Amino acid sequence: MNDVMEEKGYFGEFGGSFVPPSLQGVLDRLTDEFEKYKDDPDFNAEYKECLRDHVGRENPLTFAKHLTEAYGGAKIYLKREDLNHTGAHKINNVIGQALLAKKMGAHRIIAETGAGQHGVAAATACAMFGMECIIYMGKLDMKRQALNVFRMELLGAKVVSVDQGQGRLKDAVDVALNDLVENYETTFYLLGSAVGPHPYPSIVKHFQAVSSEESKRQMYEKEGKLPDAVIAVTGGGSNAIGAFAHYIDEPSVRLIGVEPEEAATLSKGTPAVIHGFKCLLLQDEDGQPSPTYSIAAGLDYPGIGPEHSYLKTSGRAEYATVTKKEVMEAFELLSKKEGIIPALESAHAVAMAKKIAPGYDREAALIVNISGRGDKDVQQVFDMYQNGEF
Ligand SMILES: *Cc1c(COP(=O)(O)O)cnc(C)c1O
């Protein structure tokens, strides 16, 4: 898939690896090991077996009859990443990377987390494989996400509070990278989205691509053709790149990424380097990453994966924004019409379907990627109603 484009970790001008030499050596070794295993039949068989027996894949492609009637136009199909064990797509990536770590002889996994979702997924994979798990988390984030800290601890992980800097995600990343450089012989840094220096964006895409591998086959079974469009939300970009992967070389399929209006990286960003790679970035006048805010914690990141940056600037994919109000409407409508409470992140993709579907006739078919389930968000939505925000 796109092997030429991915050469040396560049997607057009985006991607690459902007890190100190000590870290570059570790990343070069990781690149070699990933190249060795990614097409290895035994490795892939073990990965697929884990997805089947631990995650519950494949998950369905569900025809959303009532949502289709409500929006009008194209048939809407939902790719059900919400039905995975732990309730979202993140598990596909953490299992893949944990398996890679095991093959590389690492027995210690480290990861960073902001909202806690990636930390919980990483802790889950480590429990499955019997590996030691250290999660670095900003002091402030730990306070805000106390329940996720407890989840990680239940799963056997050690959560380390990061006090330096502002006590946020960026500071946790810095500490995790220092740990990796010091302990690379025994330690694997498990990264949570399709971001970071090469080879991470390619690794994450490889493991998340299982979603579009399945949906392509499922759409042929149900409709006998390719979908007309695939719609997915983008935070760092991992569920979207997985939902797009097997359609990138199918020019008839529209690829539509959706961002919150308050974190419109692809819609409004300009090229810059952040966290060791080049991408479209929301910056202030001094070139500093702009603070973002989203009602969906998983979307609060001023950067975006390098491949999405390239898909945007090359015109292969479209990216658009939705408002908070549109997201909340979609969150309610999918719950009422289909009995599926989506994650607030995924509700962004549903909100975009409302704008896209009426432009097609009933013969057309859209795939909306439901990246996760909404159980985690119900308390927050309840509070927003109580406070009269909606
Ligand atoms: C983390 C998360 C996202 C955003 O991350 P991506 O890497 O862009 O996929 C979206 N949806 C859910 C449910 C998440 O947990």
UniProtKB/TrEMBL annotation:
The encoding gene is: trpB
Mind telling me which PANTHER family this protein's record contains? Answer: TRYPTOPHAN SYNTHASE, TRYPTOPHAN SYNTHASE-RELATED
Functional summary from the UniProt entry: The beta subunit is responsible for the synthesis of L-tryptophan from indole and L-serine.
Q: Which GO terms describe its molecular function?
A: tryptophan synthase activity
Question: What are the entry keywords?
Answer: Amino-acid biosynthesis, Aromatic amino acid biosynthesis, Lyase, Pyridoxal phosphate, Tryptophan biosynthesis
Q: Locate the Tryptophan synthase beta chain-like PALP domain: which residues?
A: 57-370
Give the Enzyme Commission number: 4.2.1.20
Q: Which residues carry this modification: N6-(pyridoxal phosphate)lysine?
A: K90
Membrane spanning segments where? Answer: none
Example GO CC term: the record gives: cytoplasm
Q: What is the name of the protein in this document?
A: Tryptophan synthase beta chain
Q: Which reaction does it catalyse?
A: (1S,2R)-1-C-(indol-3-yl)glycerol 3-phosphate + L-serine = D-glyceraldehyde 3-phosphate + L-tryptophan + H2O
Give the matching NCBIfam families: trpB (TIGR00263)
Which species is listed as the source? Salisediminibacterium halotolerans
**SUPFAM superfamilies associated with the record:** Tryptophan synthase beta subunit-like PLP-dependent enzymes
